[in-house]
Amino acid sequence: MKDSHLQVMPDDNSCMFRAFSSAALGQTIDSMHELRSLIATSIQSQPDLYSEAVLEKKPDAYCNWIQREDAWGGGIELGILAQHFDLEICSINVQDLRVDRFNESAQRRVILVYSGIHYDVVALSPSEEPHEHADLPAEHDTKVFDVAKDEVLQGAVELCRVLQGRHYYTDTAGFAIKCNACGWKGNGEKAATEHAKGTGHMDFGEA
């Protein structure tokens, strides 16, 4: 029986890039710098699409920021990676089980799990006993799936339902957050966004 489980990424501000790289490029490739550079190049090459209004930051400043090791990736980055690698990326939000899809026309899919401030990746491994969680995935895990196999995505959503019951998420609307650049503290994603706009600081962590 195939076992759907969560491959946990290090909590190092590059978890989204690591989760995608683990799925699409393999465990042996540490490509964080290359993926961040790819994002910056894509943004610079499409100024009409990635304007200051979309990025909520001047494009050049955004490109400089996203190439820093402590910059978090999100929806903009997932969209660019999905298009570049011709993959559908499904990001499941554990808190409400919402599935955000990027590049839906692709024939292959990777599935990420988003906890509010962290990304992990869903993998399938041959197993007799199902398990919910695997810090050290088996060598033969599968992390790229045929989009026609909806049962894999459905299984991933059910896995996230179990994680939801165990509160494997952070409520970004109300959680305590701090700015690693200046020490400011506040509550929720909205407050952090306002602080970022006022100061230009983009490096946040949970307080």
Provide a compact summary of the structure.
This protein has 207 residues and is of the alpha+beta class.
What does this structure look like?
This protein is α+β, with helices and mostly antiparallel strands. The protein has 2 domains: 2-165, Cathepsin B, Chain A, CATH 3.90.70.80; 176-206, no CATH class. The protein is 36% helix and 22% strand. It has 7 helices and 10 strands. The chain has helices spanning 15-24, 32-45, 52-55, 59-66, 75-84, 150-165, 188-199; strands at residues 2-7, 88-93, 99-102, 108-114, 119-126, 133-134, 145-146, 176-179, 185-187, 204-206. The strands form 2 sheets. Strands 1, 2, 3, 4, 5, 6 and 7 form a 7-stranded mixed sheet that branches. Strand 4 and strand 5 form a beta hairpin. Helix 2 (32-45) packs antiparallel against helix 4. It is globular, with a radius of gyration of 17 Å. The chain starts with a strand and ends with a strand.
Any chance you could write out the topology, listing elements then pairs?
Layout: E1 2-7, H1 15-24, H2 32-45, H3 52-55, H4 59-66, H5 75-84, E2 88-93, E3 99-102, E4 108-114, E5 119-126, E6 133-134, E7 145-146, H6 150-165, E8 176-179, E9 185-187, H7 188-199, E10 204-206
Parallel strand pairs: 1-6, 2-4
Antiparallel strand pairs: 1-5, 2-3, 4-5, 4-7, 8-9, 8-10
Helix pairs in contact: 2-4
